[in-house]
Design brief:
The complex is a heterotrimer.
Chain A (H helix, E strand, L loop, with lengths): L8 H9 L3 H18 L1 H4 L21 E2 L5 E2 L10 H37 L1 H15 L3 H12 L3 H37 L6 H36 L11 H12 L5 H28 L6
Antiparallel strand pairs in A: 1-2
Chain B lengths: L1 H29 L2 H5 L6 H11 L5 H13 L13 H36 L4 H15 L2 H15 L12 E3 L2 E3 L4 H34 L2 H8 L4 H39 L4 H10 L3 H29 L1 H4 L6
Antiparallel strand pairs in B: 1-2
Chain C lengths: L1 E14 L2 E14 L3 E5 L6 H9 L6 E10 L2 E2 L5 H7 L4 E4 L3 H4 L6 H10 L6 H14 L5 H6 L7 H13 L5 E5 L7 H18 L2 E6 L2 H7 L2 E6 L2 E7 H6 L4 H8 L55 E2 L13
Parallel strand pairs in C: 3-8, 3-9, 6-7, 7-8
Antiparallel strand pairs in C: 1-2, 1-4, 4-5, 9-10, 10-11
Classes of the chains: A mainly alpha, B mainly alpha, C alpha/beta.
């Protein structure tokens, strides 16, 4: 194969990714959601957390209903008179913010720990990996619940819980790639004199480790968002001052039985669409970046 | 083989000890054990007495030793809210959770493996893509939301199935079970389905990936060269190969099923260990929380051990490693 | 009596990067009890030829032309089910690496008996007997033990004998062996070749022996076809071809055998590399590496018959024996 024909890996990945229409739809939806979430204060018809704009008389209106001052509640209003659409936008903001923040920090921590383990070798590596294995053998919800039970409530505690649940995945992946690279390093070490410095590791390790890490991170964001929603639903999550979609759903739970489904359903749908889009993208990324399935 | 078993058991014991240390540290060192183990509503004298009785004024390692000793005899404190030994509370509710988990696992296996096989054999067919799209939906939907939707559709709109509780139970080998009578069955169906959905999607994806990889292997081509019908190739050659990792995953996931039951039990008011945990967290009944964690940890370690042993039995390369001709 | 006739076989792979003509107008025939050697470097299209005959070419590959006549019937006209019945029964194949081709989680007897029972109704006992006999025929001692074993418990040579035994089980008319001894020790290789030759003579089975190793061909094959870049460049009776090669590539292959080189002299090599089949230039594929090439070689040479038994694709064949020293 002549070297003139090698395309940039990024282009190849993008081209392979685009083969799945479903994944493209997911990506488009995701971008839309991100824009809405970031721009919530500007996109929402109403700021649902500014108590001054709320009127209890507007409460529990079905979708399409109108407020006393002429605003249309496209998705209905909740029991406090909040516009569901606005609440969902703000909720998306919180859910996505917490999920992405936790994932990014967990990735950084996992990467660092994995690198340390790989570079140190010996008993340091063994201890770290045992810890990783131990943590990974327990379901995330359990770890999160126990952490929150002992730490108490609050946004920061939730983020800590989400980080704790995730970091081990990244650490394990990094160390796995490092094992493969380490064997190759011996061959190189025979010919060049330089010791295996962190620099070499960065040069060789990072490009090899990024693809699986990206795939994991994508899926983990979805997982973090779902976990946070679950925790909020159970009453252990976000405080009422900055409700995520999970809390919105929880609030609407009681009204489900009396037929006022929109208070729970629409936040639920928003959550759904977000998670599904992320998973569609992550799925296709994983298939595209998996060397064993390359034809 | 025996060496292997003994080694794994020793590893499990070490894991248990490590976990007990972690929990001990979490409760006694980081947390304030006085808050955790003594009823916050007790008065000063009561607290002093309980502190002495619990040995909280002793040096750390003596406390750990006591903790361990009590744990081994099953004494993990008394529930604040119900004033019975915490362990007893949990064990009472365990059968309900285990039944739910087993039922969910069964559903996931009976549906997941066949669907995954089909999707793996012809990955580009329209039905395979539909199955995969469905599976993405299955593990994207948060369990609690699915539960809500199930209740909304089947209880509120259609009125077919009851939305809460366990219904009638019948006695089987000394435990109460739901599946042996019709009322219990209708109560069991939705929570089990809810719990099963996530695992079902996981199993489909796992089976499909494993099947796809297996179909590319040389032994499949060789089997075709021998003129074997596809039925046999997939049903025996491929299945036996992929069952090994799949069974391993199923075993390991069973533990997580028990954990995820927490959410399902809360939504459907199923009287199991999970619901007990949430209720306890809400009323700050800490001995129960500690007891739950310890019991679950033991359960996990045991499950991991059993799965490891099963794996070595199933894979002839591991089982007969010592018997090379 | 001619058992297998391949006429103008063409198989191409339609990939995203372009069309690869893996088998380009290949023709040969094999008689009962005779061994045909198919020689070429890796990537010359030998294995694809074998798969094409067996009907095991998978997408993106497809047979695009020619005929494959097994005792007069064109295999390419057969539907999937008819082809399946023929495979393993009338026409069998031995693959290169027996560790990959035997299913690691199934016992040897299972993998042998299923080959029998896929094609005719035999009782389990009869199948067992037939399997045991087949193992004996390929020189495996204590066959009963081996039958109960798993592939990883046998040595490489024994596994390959099992593969050969499986190929022989249904007394096929043709056996295609794809580099069956490449992965084995030289001593085992010699044994197996000897036994295979004996079996072919005894049972009247026609054999196609694919290899890159000329020395194997010299000791085994009655006739040889030399393949290069998907085409047969030369063919004929083994002794004649090896003593009087006409195609420069064949001459190059013979010259590069290490034992033919005088000691101390640098090893003879064919300059250049095998061309990529994706970017094959028109004309003779060997042009760029041939010392005798000229402008005339810009057109692909057709098949000629320099003698009745020999075929050749070359404008500048070697006629003097002196050139091969």
């Amino acid at each position: 194969m002549s070297s003139a024909d090698v395309e940039s890996p990024f282009k190849r990945v993008a081209a392979d990714f685009a083969e799945s229409r479903l994944a493209l739809v997911g990506l488009a939806t995701l971008i839309l959601i991100l824009i809405v979430a970031v721009g919530a204060p500007w996109v929402s018809p109403q700021n649902p957390y500014n108590l001054a704009t709320l009127d209890i008389m507007d409460s529990k209106l079905p979708p399409g209903g109108h407020s006393l001052d002429g605003m249309t509640f496209w998705l209905g209003s909740d029991d406090q008179g909040r516009d569901m659409l606005s609440a969902i936008f703000y909720g998306l903001r919180v859910s996505l913010g917490v999920g992405i923040l936790a994932t990014v920090i967990a990735l950084a921590i996992g990467l660092a720990v994995g690198l340390v383990a790989a570079w140190s070798g010996g008993w340091v590596e063994v201890v770290i990996m045992r810890l990783v294995d131990l943590q990974l053998s327990f379901p995330s919800i359990l770890i999160a619940l126990v952490l929150l039970a002992s730490l108490g409530q609050g946004v920061d505690k939730i983020v800590i819980a989400l980080i704790t649940v995730q970091w081990a995945y990244y650490a394990r992946t990094v160390r796995g790639v490092a094992l493969v690279e380490r064997n190759k390093e011996y061959i190189e070490a025979a010919t060049c004199l330089a010791l295996s410095t962190p620099r070499i590791l960065f040069h060789h390790l990072l490009p090899n480790v990024m693809p699986p890490l990206i795939v994991i991170a994508t899926v983990q964001v979805a997982h973090a968002i779902a976990l946070e929603a679950t925790l909020s639903f159970l009453g252990l999550g976000m405080p009422i001052t900055s409700p995520s979609l999970g809390l919105l759903i929880a609030n609407g739970f009681t009204h489900l039985m009396s037929g006022k489904y929109w208070i729970s359903l629409y936040p639920g749908l928003a959550l759904l669409i977000t998670i599904v889009s992320i998973n569609l993208v992550g799925d296709q990324l994983r298939d595209v970046l998996n060397p064993r399935l390359q034809k | 083989m025996l060496v292997f078993i003994i080694r794994r058991m020793l590893q499990s014991i070490v894991a248990l000890l490590v976990m007990s240390v972690l929990i001990f540290v979490g409760v006694f060192v980081i947390g304030n054990p006085i808050d955790i183990l003594i009823n916050p509503q007790a008065d000063q004298a009561e607290i002093a007495r309980a502190t002495a009785a619990l040995g909280l004024d002793q040096p750390m390692w003596i406390q750990y030793w006591d903790f361990l000793r009590h744990a081994l005899t099953g004494d993990l404190g008394r529930s604040f809210s119900q004033n019975v030994p915490a362990v007893q509370l949990i064990l009472e509710r365990m059968p309900a959770t285990v039944e739910l988990a087993l039922c969910a696992m069964l559903m996931a296996i009976l549906l997941g493996i066949p669907l995954g096989l089909v999707a793996g054999m012809k990955p580009d067919a329209w039905y395979s893509k539909t199955i995969m799209a469905g599976s993405i939906l299955g593990f994207s939907l948060p369990t609690f939301w699915v539960g809500l939707m199930l209740i909304m559709v089947f209880s509120v709109f259609l009125g077919w199935l009851p939305s809460t509780g366990r219904g009638h139970t019948t006695l089987l080998f000394g435990v109460q079970v739901s599946f042996l009578n019709w009322d219990g069955l209708t109560h069991l169906m939705m929570p089990a389905l809810n719990l099963a959905l996530f695992k079902l999607s996981l199993l489909i994806r796992l089976t499909r990936a494993a099947t796809r990889e297996a179909m590319l292997q040389d032994y499949v081509k060789f089997a075709r060269a021998k003129g074997l019908p596809m039925r046999r190739i997939v049903g025996v050659h491929v299945l036996k190969n992929i069952l090994i990792p799949i069974v391993t995953v199923i075993g390991l996931e069973f533990g997580s099923l028990i954990a995820f039951a927490i959410v399902t039990e809360t939504i459907f008011a199923w009287p199991g260990m999970g619901k007990l945990l949430i209720d306890s967290i809400n009323v700050l009944d800490r001995p129960v929380i500690v007891a739950y964690v310890l019991i679950i940890v033991c359960l996990f370690v045991v499950i991991n051990l059993v799965v490891d042993l099963m794996y070595s039995l199933l894979d002839p390369r591991v089982r007969l490693a010592g018997a090379r001709a | 009596m001619t058992v297998l006739v391949v006429e103008n076989l063409k198989t191409s792979f339609f990939t995203k990067a372009g069309v690869v003509k893996a088998v380009d107008n290949v023709s040969f025939s094999v008689g009962a009890g005779k061994v045909l050697g198919l020689v070429g470097e890796s990537g010359s299209g030998k294995t694809v030829t074998a798969f094409s005959i067996m009907g095991l070419v998978d997408p993106p590959g497809r047979i695009v032309g020619g005929r494959v006549l097994l005792e007069g019937h064109n295999l390419l006209d057969c539907d999937d089910e008819a082809m399946r019945r023929l495979r393993g029964d009338r026409i069998a194949m031995i693959f290169q690496d027996p560790m990959m081709t035997l299913n690691p989680v199934l016992r040897i007897d299972t993998q042998m008996k299923e080959t029998l029972r896929a094609h005719r109704a035999v009782s389990r006992e009869k199948a067992h007997d037939l399997s045991r006999n087949a193992l004996g025929r390929v020189g495996i001692s204590s066959p009963d033990e081996r039958l109960k074993a798993y592939p990883h418990q046998l040595s490489g040579g024994m596994r390959q004998r099992v593969a050969i035994a499986i190929a022989l089980l249904n007394n096929p008319r043709v056996i295609i062996a794809d580099e069956p001894t490449t992965a084995l020790d030289v001593t085992i290789q010699a044994q197996i070749i000897f036994e295979v030759q004996k079996l072919a003579r005894e049972t009247g089975t026609a054999m196609v022996w694919i290899t890159h190793d000329l020395s194997v061909i010299a000791g085994l094959a009655d006739n040889v076809c030399v393949m290069y870049a998907g085409r047969i460049v030369e063919s004929g009776p083994t002794a004649d071809l090896l003593d009087h090669p006409m195609h420069p590539y064949t001459a190059g292959l013979i010259a590069s055998i290490p034992s033919r080189n005088p000691r101390g002299k640098p090893l003879a090599q064919i300059p250049g590399m095998t061309p990529s089949l994706l970017r094959l230039k028109p004309g003779c594929a060997f042009r760029d590496r041939c010392a005798r090439a000229d402008a005339a070689c810009g057109v692909a040479p057709d098949i000629t018959h320099p003698t009745t038994a020999r075929t050749l694709r070359c404008f500048h064949p070697i006629t003097a024996t002196a050139e091969t020293q």
